[in-house]
């Protein structure tokens, strides 16, 4: 199974390195990094990652992080169009934090539930009001779409995804090997703002 | 304050992206990425990061992740020598997981305590038996040296480092903004192998 991570200028590294750390501990999963046009992509804070052009991503697991770059990117037609195609073709689509706003903008997951970063919630909702945005959730899943709340929540979502596909024992084994104190309940959201 | 992350072929991304995510939320901290010779450096699993030559790192916070590449690197004299110089000049030196074995190999922290990855413990100890290796610790600090246990423990160590320098309120605020369920007790090690 291929994991395709979609990067862009202004991504948040932990949004994808956390989930990838969990997912790649399953030997059959292999990871590649993409951006719209390929080439080095920066987080705006000193980190630049080599990427391949998104059009070359294979169907499999699509992982979309968030970051401050999403504010501009929701209005980038070429990016949103390429993301929509990749998400349509994917077997599963995982979004973290404000990555959910990017996927929502594609219009693809009409009735999808999403749980973006608490601090960006009010900015994400208008992107696609048809999404059933969740203000209180560590992560939510809806068919092939998984979306998590802010930053660290992506690790719990990835472990939940692994549990759904490979069983609880595998998810626990991976969390332990990462020495990660896991939150295995998607509804347990210690950071919900009431 | 400059944060210099030391990369090498076969690094573990989450070992540094977790701590950096916490540290860079302090506005005065800025991050740059280094390797012995500079240029793109890979984790062996599809991720390649642009780096600068380590000789150009400024004194400040040195952050050394672990990864499978450390097995080879403890025997790489040129790397260990450059790491020793950078660590000597640093104001603080943070190591995660098997990154502690690299620092131990420099011989620098003679009496330093270190708490590496549980699964690599028996491999790390012979690298420098003068280090007071801790089998049960989320992280330990000893003067300017901080070292954490495996992977995710680095995030707790970074938040502990922030608490020591900028106070508990700042550490809590940053953990919350990352939606991270923090372990604030360095002696609370849920993954200790007895």
Q: How would you explain this protein's 3D organization?
A:
The structure is a homodimer of 194-residue chains. The first copy, chain A, has a single domain, classed as Class I glutamine amidotransferase (GATase) domain (Rossmann fold, 3-Layer(aba) Sandwich). The longest helix of chain A is centred in the C-terminal third of the chain and has 14 residues. Chain A contains seven helices and ten strands. Chain A is α/β, with parallel strands linked by helices. The first copy, chain A, is globular, with a radius of gyration of 15 Å. Chain A is 32% helix and 22% strand. In chain A, β3 and β4 form a beta hairpin. In chain A, the strands form two sheets. An eight-stranded mixed β-sheet of chain A has the order 3-4-2-1-5-6-10-9, with helices on both faces.
Oligomerization: homodimer
Overall CATH architecture of chain A: 3-Layer(aba) Sandwich
Our measurement of the CA-to-CA distance between the termini of chain A, rounded to an integer number of angstroms, reads 39 Å
- Name the CATH class of chain A: Alpha Beta
State the low-pLDDT regions of chain A, or none. none
Structural class designation of chain A = alpha/beta
How does the major sheet of chain A shape up? 8 strands, mixed
CATH topology of chain A: Rossmann fold
Name the overall outline of chain A.
Answer: globular
Give the spatial strand order of the biggest sheet of chain A.
Answer: 3-4-2-1-5-6-10-9
Number of spatially distinct domains of chain A: 1
User: Beta-sheet strand percentage of chain A?
Assistant: 15-25%
How would you state the average pLDDT of chain A, rounded?
Answer: 92
CATH homologous superfamily grouping of chain A: Class I glutamine amidotransferase (GATase) domain
């Amino acid at each position: 199974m291929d994991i395709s991570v979609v990067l862009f200028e202004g991504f948040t590294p932990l949004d994808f390195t956390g989930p990838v750390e969990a997912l790649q501990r399953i030997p059959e999963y292999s990871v590649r990094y993409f951006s719209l046009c390929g080439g080095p992509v920066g987080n705006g804070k000193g980190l630049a990652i080599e990427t391949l052009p998104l059009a070359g991503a294979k169907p499999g697991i699509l992982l979309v992080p968030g970051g401050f770059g999403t504010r501009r990117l929701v209005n980038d037609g070429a990016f949103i169009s390429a993301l929509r195609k990749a998400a349509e073709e994917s077997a599963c689509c995982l979004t973290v934090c404000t990555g959910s706003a990017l996927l929502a903008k594609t219009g693809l997951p009409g009735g999808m539930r999403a749980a973006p970063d608490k601090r960006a919630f009010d900015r994400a909702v208008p992107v696609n009001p048809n999404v059933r945005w969740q203000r209180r959730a560590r992560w939510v899943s809806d068919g092939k779409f998984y979306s998590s709340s802010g930053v660290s929540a992506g690790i719990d979502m990835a472990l939940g995804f692994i549990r759904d596909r490979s069983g609880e024992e595998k998810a626990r084994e991976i969390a332990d090997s990462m020495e990660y104190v896991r939150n295995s309940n998607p509804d347990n959201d210690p950071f919900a703002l009431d």
